[in-house]
Amino acid sequence: MMFQRINAGTAERVFQIVFNVAGGTVTANYPVCWDQSSTADGVRVTQPITANLSLLVGIATADITNSSYGKVQCYGYRASAFVTADTSQAVNNGDILIPVTGQYYLTRSAASDGKSGFIYAAGGSGTIAYATMTTPVAANKAVLIRML
């Protein structure tokens, strides 16, 4: 793990080095999960799927080509993570965000207890981080990560 040096002017952040086994490039700002194949080792990551949704690692900080090492952010404020809106429910600041099976984005969780999440919407001023859309499209939005 890489811990950012403490600086009063910037938010604390923590990073991990991971190995991409997703079969394609993991683009910057995409969420990744631990790979649970027969060779699970705590380093290999892949796209979120039903079997690994609870194994969210963090958000890729830069593109990670397949079969390569890269860095993911696992703690702190992040100005950009791939998030999708909904057709009927806006993503509000503080909402829990969860990975979506077979996708490289996060979406709003129905849980709103503040206890069961690892990533939270952190939009700018106001309360709506991402408004509803007729046809939802994923885009980069600010988040707070606490995966430690």
Give the SSE string.
EEEEEEEEEEEE
Rg measurement, Å: 15 Å
- The fraction of residues in strands falls at 35-45%
Shape: globular
Helix amount: under 10%
The first-to-last residue Cα distance is 11 Å
- Structural class of the helices, strands and pairings? mainly beta
Number of domain units = 2
Major beta sheet, specifics? 5 strands, mixed, barrel
Low-pLDDT segments, ≥5 res:
none
> Given the structure, what is the number of helices?
0
Widest sheet, order of strands: 2-4-3-5-6
Q: How many E-type strands?
A: 12
3D structure, described in words:
It is globular and about 40 Å long. Strands 2-4-3-5-6 form a 5-stranded mixed beta barrel. It has a two-stranded antiparallel ribbon with strand order 7-11. The chain folds into 2 domains: 2-75, no CATH class; 77-146. It starts with a strand and ends with a strand. It is 0% helix and 42% strand. It is built from no helices and 12 strands. By secondary structure, it is mainly β.
Give a brief description.
The protein is mainly β and 148 residues long. The protein is 0% helix and 42% strand.
